[in-house]
Design goal:
Elements: H1 6-12, E1 42-47, H2 59-65, E2 69-73, E3 80-86, H3 102-119, E4 123-129, E5 135-140, H4 146-154, H5 164-174, E6 180-185, H6 194-202, E7 206-213, H7 215-218, E8 224-229, E9 236-241, H8 243-267, E10 270-275, H9 280-290
Length: 295
């Protein structure tokens, strides 16, 4: 799957990711500035990350400590960007339509947000969450890393069942650099998601929850006698889908999303429900802008 063409990449490079509530000490100020190191006044150090400009390496510190550090200037605001993509088997749906496939959509969206961060000089990490072991790319800076990012994402495959609470809690504990973090998932996790989101926020992350669903999960097109099979566990059930049953499904589905939205609003999590027939570029350039996550 080719994720982007050159025209899309150039459009994304005009955007900037915005974090308002990252914990003090991780990032200066209430909002990020487009200015990067225009002041000559020294502010702080941070660890060197692949892709940094070697001209800003403090060679005196390197000579003393034998560790590379980059000098931050007064107006520079250094944002960590984290993209966590649920790669469980439930995301590999529908399997017959690549354009509406949830994992393909989530991968494209993660790639878009990651490229925005790389082009802006942010420190970007992308992780595919799965029960058999996470796959991680980064942290890297600089748009020259985009090709490797896209190769990493294009090779992503769905497998197993992802327990979001465990996966998110482990990420919160293991990651050294809190920042702006996006979770891309259908939220079909046996243990739920709340404990995991709480763990991320307690470590200082500003969290955006991109709830990715296919159109037929939102509004099933089927009816009559059907056999439902859980794509992750293989469990099945035979049911009759008549008008009243479908109406009940839609009602409960809406209640489920309303419950997620209310929880996120109370916790200060950015909640964005998505169906995969919604154009990804419109989501980035309009919806996320309206949410204040992109400028």
């Amino acid at each position: 799957m080719k994720i982007f063409d050159e025209t899309s990449l150039r459009k994304l490079e005009q955007l900037t990711l915005v974090a308002d509530r990252v914990r003090v000490g991780v990032m200066k100020g209430e909002r990020r500035s487009r200015k990067r190191g225009t002041s000559i006044e020294f502010a702080d150090y941070r660890n060197y990350t692949q892709g940094d400009d070697l001209r800003r390496l403090d060679w005196n510190v390197f000579a003393r400590l034998e560790r590379p550090f980059i000098k931050l200037l007064e107006e520079e605001e250094d944002l960590g960007v984290h993209l966590l993509v649920d790669s469980s088997l439930s995301m590999d749906w529908p399997d017959e339509d690549a354009e509406l496939n949830k994992l393909n959509y989530a991968v494209r969206l993660a790639g878009a947000l990651a490229h925005i961060g790389l082009a802006a000089g942010d420190q970007v990490t992308v992780t595919l969450l799965r029960s058999t072991g996470n796959e991680r790319w980064g942290p890297y800076r600089g748009r020259h890393n985009t090709l490797r990012l896209l190769q990493f994402l294009e090779n992503g495959r769905a497998s197993g069942i992802t327990d979001l609470n465990i996966a998110l809690r482990n990420y919160a504990l293991q990651s050294r650099r809190p920042g702006l973090l996006f979770v891309l998932s259908d939220l079909f996790s046996p243990g739920g998601y709340r404990e995991g989101l709480n763990a991320l926020q307690s470590r200082g992350y500003e969290v955006g929850l991109l709830h990715v669903l296919s159109p037929d999960e939102n509004d099933p097109p089927v009816g009559g006698d059907v056999k439902l099979v859980d794509i992750e566990t293989g469990a099945d059930a035979e049911i009759t889908l008549d008008t009243s049953t479908l109406d009940m499904y839609r009602e409960r589905f809406q209640e489920w999303q309303a419950e997620i939205s209310a929880y996120c609003q109370n916790r200060g999590v950015h909640y964005i429900p998505i169906t995969t027939d919604y154009p990804w570029d419109r989501l980035v350039m309009q919806t996320l802008r309206a949410k204040g996550l992109v400028s």
